[in-house]
Amino acid sequence: MMRKLALQFLLVLGAIFIITAAGPLILNDPYHDGPHSGPSNVWEFVHMFARDSWALLLIIGILLSIASGLGLRR
Description:
Strand content: under 5%
Distance between the termini: 13 Å
Shape: elongated
Number of domains: 1
Largest sheet: none
Structural class: mainly alpha
Order of helices and strands: HHH
Oligomer: single chain
Helix content: over 70%
């Protein structure tokens, strides 16, 4: 029971990483040129982080999803 719950949690976490990595493809760039450049709230901070490291987030998300999917099949 706990193993299945942990694998489902990893599957959801992997999906969150994949969605976060895909965010910069859909949304506008939060960077601004000026004295007050940078994130003005948490969502812009997450978006800037995702834009800088989208490949890493995508790889981690895919690996977590595959690993938990294989674990749930067993």
